[in-house]
Amino acid sequence: MNAGELLANTLSPDATTRQDAESKLEAAARENFPAYMLMLSSELINEAAEPHVRNAAGLALKNAVSAREVARQAEYAVRWLALDNDTRNKIKQDSLMSLGGQHPRIAHVGAQVVSAIACVEIPAAQWQDLITLLLGFVNDANNTNLRVSTLEAIGFICEGIKSEVLSLRSNEILTAVIHGARKEEPSPECQYAAIHALFNALDFVRDNFEREGERNYIMQVICEATQNPNVKVQVGAYECLVRVMDLYYDKMSFYMERALFGLTVLGMKNPEEAVALQAIEFWSTVCEEEFELLMEANEAAEYGEFAEVECQNFSKIALPEIVPVLLTLLTRQEEEADEDEWNVSMAAATCLGLLAKAVQDTIVSAVIPFIEAHIKAQDWHQREAAVMTFGSIMDGPDPQVLAPLVHQALPLLIDMMSDPVVQVRDTVAWTLGRICDLLISTLKVDVHVHPLISALVNGLQDNPRIIANCCWALTNLADGLSDMTEEGAAPATGSLSPYYEGVVQALLKVTETAGNESNFRTAAYEAIAAFCMNAPGDVVSVVQNTIVTILLRMEHLISVANQILGIDDRNNWNDLQTNFCSVIVSVIRRLGDGIQPLADRIMTLILQLIQCAAKSSTIMEDAFLVVGTLATALEQGFAPYMGAFLPYLHPALKAHEDTQLCTVAVGLIGDFSRALGELSAQYSDAFMRVLLENLQSEVLNRNVKISILSCFGDIALAIGPAFEPYLETTMSVLRQAGSVQPNPLDYELVEYVSNLREGILEAYTGVVTGLKNTEKVNLLIPYTSNILELCQRCLADEDRADSVAKLSYGLIGDLADSFPNGQIKQLLLAEWIGQELRSRSRMAGETKRTLRWAREMVKRATA
Hints:
The protein has 863 residues and is mostly helical. This is Importin-95.
């Protein structure tokens, strides 16, 4: 069978034919990769072949060079670059030839192949003449197809290659795409491809945006394209404006005044939904940007400083223009709209919410007339829009400004939970949830709580989306009206006590259903968990009865685990077990050591659950979370369960490919160490061995290794002087890890090193605290210099996280406190320590308190 037939068969509607062809192609790629690639390349430019076959060849070529997963992409790049030059050059030549074909579909896939190869070769300093070749194609006025596909290729390349790699060619690329995007361009296909390429190029033309003349021309071309008769070009132009606002907000004042206010308000009114959506997105981006700037300005003001970028208040200036348009768009709901389908009314509601955060109190007077005029309207679209408006503006204005509005609207909203139109009831339930979430402080408990809970409990009998919103509202109510102290102590009674029995029973009834449409059953379990977690003393019996009900359900579900056949049943089983575990965790946290009478039953069930989890790591994680919470509650009372549980912990610690499960398993060692204290010494040998082995793994995610370092601190703190056998190895590992330096241009690495340092500081803190005030404290002296070096490096980093600063100050204080008689006096008298402990830079209150304590400890240790 020849290549064309094989490729044609990969598109066959017959599954057997299709799978046979795919397996033969995969075998060809494995056996002789160069020949396989040349075969596909030849088929791509074979004018005698059917277009769908050539398209399949192009896609197979692209997929042999590029992949979504980072690891696989790296593997494919190595494989491609290992091909001999003749093979690579032939394939590259063929892919460039395909750009000029008469069939648009082939030219499009050719653009994908060119960009896939470019994204491998250009970062490796190969195919240096590609951009020059593509720019030559763009200027070929006689071949529109070639120009379109070339612009597509440039767009894909701009999207796929890091901006710093392409920035040296930014002038040439920008010239080509701007030329294609101009209003004088006769081909709308060229204009669209150029606008799309420009969108992807905007990130690396920062230098061009710094130059006013070039910036003006780019903005002119984009603004003119918003008026293009072709809808796709208009949409692309508005997408560019959104991106420009996101990247170059500080340069936009001139353009907002001259063009963008008017253009985007008109765009929101455009009857073409795709255009209106992007124009709304423009204002959403403005509001997000200005809210962030507002936060930064407030934070800077606290320390008597000015923010780096000044807020231009575009959203506040435009408020009178954009609010009426957004409110009108809110009334454009679709009767049968899918909840996952994005439309103009949803986009307008989102934009209104962001606008409220950006302009804060100013939004209230702008929308009240609309709410008052439409909340009792005959047309359900207007009623729903009025409620949506009210719900959307709650996050931003001062709650005290909104309080009178809440008091006025709440009785009406509660009545509207009986509205004949389901869309209205749904939005009302969501709005009540928002009040319980954001404006709980405005509620008058004696006036509002009874009718509110009655309405929400009645809503639990409505359709799934409304049930989910009512459950969310009840969750917020339980959390918001909780009188728990910061230490987690429960009050004797609470404002929700009279309703506990009824609400929890109603929620348990909701969870008896087999379905979970709109996640309503999951939301009900979350509400049950919230009520259990926040239960006052006089309703503990409700919590106890609830846990018994949940354990009975878990027992039943485990007993039928062997009867599960289909994937849907298995997913449903998993979801329910996750829900049960979340409620059990909440009950344990609320009851503390009061869970002891049920501990045997809980551990028996959890061990059974792990056995029948069918390798579902999610269920394992949930089960482990229950175990860790139980250990924390019982403390040394958990010791009898360790022997039965540890055989299940070890395989999870060795599941290096499963990052999440391994992280949870490492966290459990910390939980056990903290709970058991010195009793955990009998397990520390096994724990330390497996953790040190995991650090050597090349497969294990590096973030899990940070958790492991932190876990050393938990073990050391728990067993104190008994940590001596592991001290030298641990300190050596921590010193090596602490020497890692970030490349400031690699943001991911910078963040990783920051997290790594935090984990190391936590480990050092555990080790030092564990040995402090013991006869083994002098074991620390040889390591104090290294510990302080890391503290110095962390505090010298201007971009350090506040948590890193707090740990560093705390560690300096702990070392000084460990040696109050001058044993490390010379180290503590270092100039940098004095400077840091006198620091007046901005920091959180908790960090400042830690700094002051450290200063006192150092003063005492150096006296």
